[in-house]
Amino acid sequence: MGTITLINNETGKSYEFDLIDCTRGPKAINFSKLFETTGIFSYDPGYGSTAGCESTISYIDGKKGELLYKGIPIEDLVMHYSFSDICKFLISGDLPKNEQESLEFDLELRHRGFLHEKLKRMFDVFPDRAHPMATLSALVSVLSTLYVDYKDEGDTDDYQTMARRIIGKIPTMVAYCYRNSVGAPFIQPDISKSYIENFLYMLRGYPHSRLKHTIYGEQEISELEIKALNKILILHADHGQNASTTTVRNVASTGVHPYAAISSGISALWGPVHGGANEKVLRQLNEIGDVKNVDKFIARAKDKNDSFRLMGFGHRVYKNYDPRAKVLKTLKDELDQQGIKMDSYLSDIAQKVEEVALSDDYFKERGLYPNVDFYSGIILTALKIPTELFTPIFVMGRMPGWCAQLIEHNKNPHARITRPRQVYLGK
Ligand code: CMC
């Protein structure tokens, strides 16, 4: 462990601070006693240079364009594991050792997929046009009124149960948000179906139908669709201390119910520059409308007098191609070849946008590359997922990450309430 010296040029005094060696990535200055030692605090709006916690869950190398969950590259995880395996991995620390363990965990999630009858009735209070992210955030908060058994904060089992329960229920809640918004009756979870298949079934199926769940003509839920959704969810499972995860940790730091903290995370994720970008990308591709208009929109994105931003481009940490976007781009092409056809109108515009942006100095100088949201919407559209469910699907994917972060926060005896300072410039 090294040290770093800070010299106050006004007083000539110098102060030494420890450097923390991270197991990967750059060192950090331990500034936790900065104020006590120097009487001065640090200013870092947006926390671009500040670590708020220690974590062992995911690691991002923004220069290389690399993302690891517990030390394993996401590219390996999407090849060999299901989303429920990754949920188990993140919240308990272990990947399933064999198929039996994998199935048992998936089965536990399926059994936890049913919603309390009172919660189901609450869907009625939301207008048809309510955005599902608002409904989800509200209903996850309501879960805290139904499940009060998290109370023993020192008991890790309570937090495990809390995590498994909400991971199990969130697909049902997402599917019901959609069905409620179109006036369709709810479909009970079917525990004979895997976690992902069950979600697609609850989203699309006809209740009590002898036909095979066919809201779109005779189409069944294919293995290929299940595989694709598994991959998409795995890619969203955790991502360091992004805005929504930080929100979950900040709210949890006050000692509130874990589902209240997760509800706040859902609200944070909804924002268009965070998880809401996947929905905005699709709307923006439609707004561009034709490959011949791409140059005009790229010019707008570069114009400092225009608030227009290219959605699905840029990232605080990645200054290289987002590895999640790389996997999704390949997945998009594979699915297209294997029979899940992409909308060529959207695909062609997206490809042109990427081509023009990546050869433009403005984007090159700022390290602006496609992020996870750039291609996910095109694939979700091909999977017949309604556009307003894109961000709720992100919620489904991120749920194990938020739960793992909550468990980690809860286990840390040194965790303190989040309480930043301010640079006061008022009267
Ligand atoms: N289009 C045009 N210019 C951009 C874009 C963009 N999408 N993103 C960043 N820039 C410019 C920005 O104007 C600034 O230029 P300058 O240095 O001349 O002032 C420079 O690049 C740095 O941008 P920043 O806003 O300081 O970067 P940030 O780290 O604060 O913001 C971001 C990161 C993701 C919010 C931003 O890149 C953005 O708004 N992107 C579009 C929305 C989006 O796709 N969000 C999804 C992020 S990935 C999923 C997730 O984790 O939530």
From TrEMBL:
Q: Which residues form the active site?
A: 315, 373
The answer to keyword ATP-binding applying to this record is no
* One Pfam family of this chain: Citrate_synt
Q: Which GO terms describe its biological process?
A: tricarboxylic acid cycle
Q: In which pathway does it act?
A: Carbohydrate metabolism; tricarboxylic acid cycle; isocitrate from oxaloacetate: step 1/2
Catalysed conversion reaction: oxaloacetate + acetyl-CoA + H2O = citrate + CoA + H(+)
InterPro entries assigned to the protein according to its UniProt record, in alphabetical order: Citrate_synth-like_lrg_a-sub, Citrate_synth-like_sm_a-sub, Citrate_synthase, Citrate_synthase_AS, Citrate_synthase_bac-typ, Citrate_synthase_sf
Q: Does the keyword Transferase apply?
A: yes
Which molecular function terms from Gene Ontology are attached? citrate synthase activity
Q: Which domain of life is it from?
A: Bacteria
Q: Which UniProt keywords apply?
A: Transferase, Tricarboxylic acid cycle
Q: What does the similarity note say?
A: Belongs to the citrate synthase family.
| Name this polypeptide is given | Citrate synthase
